[in-house]
Amino acid sequence: MNQPASSASTASQPRHFALIPAAGVGARMGAQIPKQYMPIAGKPMLRHALETFAAHARIAHTFVVVSAGDAWIDELVTPELASRATVLRVGGATRQESVFNGLNEIRHAAGDADWVLVHDAARPGLDAGLIDRLLDTLDGDEVGGLLALPVVDTLKRESAGGRSQETVPRAGLWAAQTPQMFRYALLQRALRQAAEQGRIGAITDDASAIEMLGLQPRLVEGSPRNLKVTLAQDAALAEFFLKG
Ligand code: C5P
Description:
By secondary structure, the chain is of the alpha/beta class. The chain has helices at 45-54, 73-76, 79-82, 95-105, 128-138, 184-196, 206-211, 232-242; strands at 16-21, 39-40, 43-44, 61-65, 85-88, 115-118, 145-150, 155-158, 164-168, 174-183, 218-221. The chain has one domain (16-242): Spore Coat Polysaccharide Biosynthesis Protein SpsA, Chain A (Alpha-Beta Complex), CATH 3.90.550. The chain is built from 8 helices and 11 strands. A hairpin with a 2-residue loop joins strand 2 and strand 3 (43-44). It binds cytidine-5'-monophosphate. Cytidine-5'-monophosphate (C5P) binds at residues 21-24, 36, 65, 91-95, 98, 120-122, 228, 230.
């Protein structure tokens, strides 16, 4: 797999790297293969996001983190993608561990001030317009941020017996999506600190680790088409969006 040219950023021109953690097994899908390799709209889910980043002129390079024994990735990263994407076989036991291992592996390519866009392999609906919106909003930002959608449903807290105990006010609540975009050094520090404090298991996205540093990531409006495919029925919805 090709390695990107060394690319230490200057303070004035940080670069943008995509990092796709794809080392999960997708147990909730109940499928035989990891969910990132399940076909959606004619190709494996992971390939959609990979192609979107690879085709985007503002993304310097894309890195994909898979588990050491992954048997599917080599076939997926075709020769035309290989110059724009590098596979890192350093997946961990959790998503955050996979992201952290991936960050350590790309130390040779990324400078402290470069941006890293962490994107779940299970969100095949990402498109160039959403990447542009994220970059346009966050370039120059002190902290970084993430795509997210304001919550529109009325929220209920379940009691032990499967009944609605109370209604949770939805004002000010957003559902986090990815990419989540932070400077290389800040994200690495946030994940390291979360691990050292034994809190890594409590976080399910990168922004939560940044919040634990007392910082406030910016919320950038995402899109319903950027949904995360978790359950079998999500695949049909993702296919609907991708087929346009
Ligand atoms: O399972 P879930 O949908 O929350 O996973 C989110 C993303 O994190 C997926 O792209 C999955 O492949 C990745 N992941 C990982 N390493 C793990 C677990 C999940 O890279 N150990």
